[in-house]
Design a protein that fits this description.
- The complex is a heterodimer of chains A (855) and B (108).
- In chain A, 52% of the residues lie in helices and 16% in strands.
- With 855 residues, chain A is an alpha+beta fold.
- Chain A starts with 8 loop residues before the first helix and ends with a helix.
- Chain B is elongated and about 55 Å long.
- The chains are: A alpha+beta (855), B mainly alpha (108).
- The A-B interface holds A 1, 4, 6, 18-19, 21-34, 36, 54, 57-62, 64-65 and B 23-25, 28, 40-43, 45-46, 49, 59, 61, 64-69, 71-74.
């Protein structure tokens, strides 16, 4: 034969690849032979077509064949995998459980982060929505205010063509709303301009958004609120009563607000209704309302200077207040240190917790890999055996990867169960309402599967690639394959990394604890104990004089006073009219009643407090020490000052007290004696039978107020309310620190037991040669101890630096003492020693005969 | 023991008929000549391997030829177990067809 034709090389190659059981290529040989015949009988083209056709027709059978075989092998792999799990029950548990806990932690943090960053994302106009915030030039941007004066919004809309809409918004707590016999204290009644509904995406179920808030006496109810008042009746057109004084009509029903909205209300009324309640809407000097603006799409935010210009034009005088626009999407997370609602998130915590989550997961994964790797050393013989009976390297690699994937996915399953169990507790801790919905939370699902895949892949790399490379002969000839040196450095890094994290977390928790404790103990400048506070309702405001006398008549009540804000609470800041043309100071002010000083146990620095003995006190002012200092008054007493266009004399200087939270420094404060705007009543009671005193106070309350239920708080209970965000973060910290330690110890325990097992023979020999139990235990524990000490050296600066950043939000900070570092480091060291020690002692106690005989 | 399928029977009988010259190409042609069925090579080899695993047939490696692109032939021969299985299959066939007259059945 002079010339041979060949079938297409691709076809032949595919054929050869697909036919798994083709011994000596007899199949491709047969095809060649017949191909030749066909070329001779018919034509080359026919032969080629025939060849391809054969290939296609053979496909189903090839496929069936390969599936049958893989199923058989997978069954075997699974059997071996589970046998191994059972053989090393302890390790397997630590391994899978450790990873599951790590994954669970990660999922929880991820859910939290997802929830935090999802705030306000549902607004269609989100990118063009802003809130106007302002700050004092002297205090600086560390403290921003989200309240503005009401005429600002219309002025901005007039002056700037880029402003599409503006809406003012105000929120009032504890308002009594009545419908017939039904009455509820609504925690959040809000007031807004009609444009509010066009700017923000709060859809209406009933009613027309264009007209719903046109009439000052109209209101929108959320779905569940409407249900609360009217049951299944149609709410539209129903008339409700506000505080038993003003009637208003329901014009529509809002869909319930999503929990991840910074705006939260149950009833929405027109802002003009505030006029009925006595609020001035054209006063430039009174900062109490929130201003939201919507710009035309594509327009840049208005510059601060221009905003200030508008304000100064409105007030007609220069001002110390600077304005800026805060994008609505940043309100929740990027307004740390800002007053006003919606600012209880903090982007730094998002970063911090994300890093912690990543770290915990990283450690759990490394532990998992390390333990899987450690165990796989024992399986060299199995690999050898598999190779002898014909396994290719590819098969071994697949087997080990498959096995580690399997374990990783089992861990993932367990972690989901853990999350399901723990989520209610975590929701409680974070004051959120999160749920684990894998089916709807696509990104989470992708992330989890990705994590499991990556973990499985990495933990499989070492056994898959190293063990599959062994020569069967070497495996059987040598007693054991040494895997010790290959990852001993890795192991050290691992121990150091996980203990650094644990130590840093404990230090962090300790410092947060001591900061909160410091704030709790700090001299606030007033007496927090035995003071009962309550809101003054409209009825009580009118009859306050008589009621006060009634109350004072009760045994056990020593002082009664009112104030426009509790000593903690914030009042609007306004400009004080100084003598010096250039000098402008923004004061906090509070309207107070006689007996304010006595009720709260405050002290005067100079002069006197308001007193009934002086009739002129209605035109008198009391300043705090900071105010005097900032105004640079030489002789403050008797100084004439003008405040709210009202002239008056300074009659006294009150000692500085912390009327705001300790996040901020003491600000200048002015007290006036006024009945206008008294919001809170505070009653100082004598220590003793509190229950009966409260009952009597309630009796007096119900004499004067028939609508509002009797509600009160204790002043010292305010601490928890004001610092609830801080307390919440502290608690989350505690949990994560605990988890990190558990995972670290699990990892260490696994490593230590593995080491002890590897060195069984060495320990036996040492004992035979006369080593003591303690000597051997120390020998084993020494290495780990060393690295925990190194971990301390890394963790301390890390924790110090991070905590310095976190504490920066507090104006009054606790000292970061060395004590907390020593305690945390010591604690972790003890834990590590106990973990390793347990294993070491057990190893040291074994009879040398047992361990030497196992050959 | 599972009954032999018709495909198995026809291939095994082809091997028997071919004697010393039973390998892929000839088996496929023989089956086609007798039954009119042409098997794809993938299918044929699947069956051959199954039969070999059940030890009904035996493999014997031949020498490579140029025509086959330097690849060896693998010859197949029936084993005694294979023989036995074929006999059983044939008896089974006869038993189940016994007493069924061809013409009436075809008309009926």
């Amino acid at each position: 034969m002079c010339h041979l034709h060949k079938p297409s090389r691709i076809a032949e190659w595919i054929m050869a690849r697909l036919s798994l059981l083709d011994d000596e290529f007899s199949l491709t040989g047969d095809l060649r032979e017949e191909f030749e015949d066909l070329v001779a009988e018919k034509s080359l083209a026919y032969a080629h077509t025939w060849y391809w056709f054969q290939l296609l027709k053979s496909l189903p059978d090839f496929l069936k064949n390969s599936i049958t075989w893989s199923v058989i092998m997978i069954k075997n792999y699974l059997k071996i995998a589970f046998r191994n799990l059972r053989k090393h029950r302890g390790y397997s548990f630590i391994n899978i459980f450790g990873l599951a806990v790590g994954l669970a932690t990660c999922i929880l943090i991820l859910l939290w982060v997802q929830d935090e960053v999802s705030y306000d994302r549902f607004h269609t106009n989100l990118d063009s929505l802003y809130r106007v915030v302002c700050y004092d030039r002297i205090i600086g941007t560390s403290e921003k205010f989200s309240v503005t004066s009401p005429p600002l919004a219309p002025a901005l809309e007039q002056n700037f063509p880029e402003v599409l809409r503006t809406a003012r918004y105000d929120q009032q707590r504890n308002q009594l709303i009545k419908y017939g016999e039904k009455k509820f204290l609504e925690n959040s009644v809000s007031f807004a301009d009609p444009t509010f509904l066009e700017m923000f995406s709060f859809p209406l179920i009933k009613g027309d958004p264009q007209t719903a808030l046109k009439d000052p006496h109209s209101a929108l109810l959320t779905e569940s609120t409407a249900h609360k008042y009217f049951g299944s009746e149609d709410p539209v057109g129903k008339v409700l009563s506000f505080g038993g004084r003003y009637d208003f009509q329901v014009t529509g029903v809002l869909k319930d607000l999503p929990s991840n909205s910074h705006l939260q209300f149950t009833i929405l009324m027109p802002v003009n209704f505030l006029k009925d309640l006595g609020w001035e809407l054209d006063d430039w000097g009174h900062f109490f309302i929130h201003t939201y603006i919507q710009l035309h799409p594509e327009s840049a935010p208005i510059e601060s200077a221009k905003l200030l210009e508008t304000y100064e034009k409105g007030t007609g005088e220069p001002s110390n207040i600077l304005y800026e626009l805060l994008p609505v999407k940043d309100i929740h997370l990027h307004s740390a240190g800002a007053w006003g609602f919606g600012a209880d998130g903090d982007i730094r915590y998002i970063y911090l917790f994300s890093i912690i989550a990543a770290f915990v997961l990283f450690i759990a994964c490394i532990n998992f890999m390390n333990l899987s790797t450690a165990q796989s050393g024992d399986r060299a013989k199995e690999v050898g055996m598999r190779k002898v009976v014909g396994a290719r390297r590819k098969d071994i690699i697949n087997q080990f990867f498959g096995e580690s994937m399997l374990l990783a996915f089992i861990a993932l399953g367990i972690s989901l169960i853990i999350v399901r169990i723990v989520l209610p507790i975590f929701n409680n801790l974070t004051a959120k309402d999160m749920s684990l919905n894998i089916s709807t939370n696509g990104s989470l699902l992708m992330f989890l599967v990705g994590i499991a895949l990556v973990t499985g892949l990495f933990s499989g790399i070492y056994p898959a690639l190293l063990l599959s490379g062994f020569k069967p002969v070497a495996v059987f000839k040598e007693k054991s394959i040494s895997t010790k040196n290959i990852h001993s450095l890795f192991r050290k890094i691992l121990v150091v990394a996980q203990f650094s994290l644990s130590i840093a977390l404990i230090i962090g928790t300790g410092i947060i604890y001591s900061q909160l404790d410091y704030m709790k103990r700090m001299e606030l400048g007033f007496d927090q104990e035995h003071v009962v506070c309550m809101n003054l309702t409209p009825n009580l405001k009118e009859k306050y004089g008589v009621m006060k006398e009634e109350l004072l008549r009760l045994p056990g009540v020593s002082h009664v006073t009112t104030a426009s804000g509790r000593p903690f609470a914030q009042s609007s800041s306004i400009t004080w009219e100084g003598r010096d043309e250039d000098k402008h100071i923004d004061l906090f002010f509070s309207h107070v009643d006689y007996d304010f000083l006595e009720t709260f146990g405050m002290d005067m620095a100079d002069g006197r407090f308001f007193s009934k003995d002086f009739s002129i006190d209605k035109e008198s002012y009391v300043l705090n020490e900071t105010a005097v200092r900032q105004m640079e008054l030489k002789n403050p007493l008797g100084e004439q000052i003008e405040f709210f266009e009202q002239k008056g004399t300074v009659i006294g200087i009150i000692k500085d007290y912390h009327f705001r939270s300790l996040h901020s420094k003491i600000a200048p404060l002015l007290l006036t004696l006024s009945e206008k705007g008294q919001n809170y009543m505070s009653i100082k009671v004598v220590p003793g039978n509190l229950r009966s005193i409260l009952d009597k106070i309630k009796g007096v309350w119900s004499q004067f107020e028939r609508d509002y239920p009797f509600q009160y708080t204790f002043l010292d209970g305010e601490f928890d309310r004001i610092y609830r965000t801080d307390i919440r973060f502290r608690n989350i910290f505690v949990y994560f620190a605990g988890l990190a330690i558990v995972i670290s110890c699990l990892g260490l325990f696994g490593l230590a037991s593995f080491m002890a097992e590897k060195r069984t023979k060495e320990i036996g020999v040492r004992k035979v040669l006369g080593a003591s139990v303690s000597g051997i235990a120390i020998l084993l524990a020494k290495e780990f101890t060393k690295w925990v000490v190194v971990a301390n050296a890394l963790a301390w600066p890390l924790a110090y630096w991070t905590m310095k950043q976190l504490l920066a939000v507090y104006a009054y900070r606790t000292e970061i003492g060395i004590g907390i570092f020593l305690i945390s480091g010591g604690l972790v060291l003890v834990m590590a020693l106990m973990t390793v020690g347990y294993k070491s002692v057990r190893a040291a106690l074994t009879n040398p005969v047992d361990c030497l005989r196992y050959e | 023991m599972k009954d032999l399928s018709l495909a198995h029977q026809s291939i095994m009988l082809a091997i028997w008929r071919l004697g010393d010259n039973a390998y892929g190409v000839t088996i496929r042609k023989q089956v086609a000549a007798v039954t009119g069925r042409t098997y794809a090579y993938g299918t044929l080899y699947n069956i051959l391997n199954q039969l070999a695993m059940k030890s009904y047939i035996q493999k014997r490696v031949g020498s490579p030829t140029a025509k086959r692109g330097g690849r060896r032939k693998i010859f197949y021969t029936l084993t005694s177990a294979g023989n036995q299985a074929l006999k059983t299959a044939r008896q089974m066939q006869e038993v189940i067809w016994k007493g069924i007259p061809g013409r009436e059945f075809e008309e009926g």
